[in-house]
User: Fold this.
Amino acid sequence: MADPKPVRLVVVDACVLINLIHVNRLDILGRLKGWEFVVPEQVSEEISEPGQVRILHEAFRDGYIRKEQSTEPAELGVYAKLRQVMGRGEAACLAMAHARNWMVACDERGRFHRECRLKLSDQRVLNTPGILLLAIRHSVIDAEGLSQNNRSTLARAPGGQMQGAATQAM
Amino acid sequence: MAVTQLELGKRLRAAREACHMTQDEVARHVGVSRATIAQMELGNRAVTSLELDRFAYIYARDMRQFVSGDPEEDDSLVALFRLQPEVSGQDEVFAALRDCLALGREITNLERLLEIDRNIAALAAYPLPPPRTKWEAIQQGDRIAAEERRRLGIGSVPLPDVAGLLEAQGVRTAQVPLPEDLSGLTLAESDVGVLVVANRSHHFLRRRFSYAHEYCHVMLDREQKGAISRVSDRESFQEIRANSFAACFLMPGSGVQEFVRGLAKGNPSRLEADVFDEDGALHAQARPAPGSQKIQMYDVVLMAQHFGVSRVAALYRLKNLKLIADSEFEALKAQEERGVGAEVAQLLGLPEPDHKQARNEFRHRFLALGLEALRRGEITRRKLGELAAGVDVAAEELDSVLAESGLEEQDDAIDLLLPGD
Assistant:
């Protein structure tokens, strides 16, 4: 019997979390078989709007996502260097994914995306539309799963004008 | 190369001891128990990246010093604590120092990313022995101010932008809210360069004086790696020298005399001259009209405005240059304390400096660096947000500036990123 496919571990940045919180579908991250999504402490701290904090805590409680921390000195070294050019949460995500050979889920472009590609390659970077497409493929949501209302909400979400991409994922 | 957990622990302990902090105090800052700090320092308990961020801030270090390369043996904070050991026990001052160093590192980092070159090798240095008396301190300050003006080729004209002048000399300047007792400070170390900080809470004119004061420390005391200028230390010879320098640099003697002459004042009560024609001399004398040479409050107001100093600073300068007698000085100072100076300034329609605007000068410069770094793709949007928060810019304010300036990426054609499932 063939070995089961290994679980793919993904470190999630704040923008992706906020986008999914906006459509109240953080549960997607816990329902994708073969995938596990982790959130560095710094990313969790970046979400400060009370309503979003509540939804995030519920997702932790329900096991859709889990918290993770960097403690290996080599990983801390990467984190310290990345902090020169990026925010705490971004640096924590990338340092973790880089050191552990994991993936990163982020919607940022510019410097962060460039560093991700440089350190992880395109094969280890996904974003909110990618997660939505994955959710459709895994039958976690269907094309109608995101209502028009939700798509509009996603379009207004900070850090990612996702409407076009969400439609692309549908 | 990365360090081991044991080495990281040792570096954390060394940094704590350099800051004269107890494990209890650090534990309170980090939000863990004293025992946890002890275990981390022994290398028995791993340090998280979040905790590392906290340690770097608490110990006012660059985070990289803990986890890679060789540790900085003797940074400016350590040097300052050695010079002024009481500072480490003063929480408010220590907190201000932390903020200054953190800000200094961010400015340095932005300038490095933008390839802005600071040529501090060109910065003037005047190797002078430490003054042994107050008088010597005053004389040294006076002399160095004149020499530096000569070196810069600025004659005796007023200096409209002191911070700008320092920047042009390779000195980074910043404004940070400091405790009231602190007018400014100078930090000099490899990863920050030379940074001069003025108290953002102080009045614009006082900050100008502080920048000039710190410039003296930069030129004369930078081997010490730093200096903290406190009102309570004003009797120290180094502080006296720096204050003398600031007064003379902002109000050069020849410039003040010229200004006063322009008011047709400052002459002695009797003017005398001898004209010599090889055979002998003819003597002539004149007496200015009684009271005509007496400097009035409106003259002081005009002079303060001209040189960009406070009226009190102008009064002291006039006194030191013997342009007013001690009794006149006392009378004018009493008037100033009664608010006469401010009333006269208003009457003359002289614009008071826009204090709020001037306070934000540094913020503008700092954020402009950040915006340029974002535009060039050198930093992320989130990093800019952190930098902006560090100088009290609200997130909404930044969002609005980015959207209006076109720096926020508006492109809605986002690629779908999903590696092979």
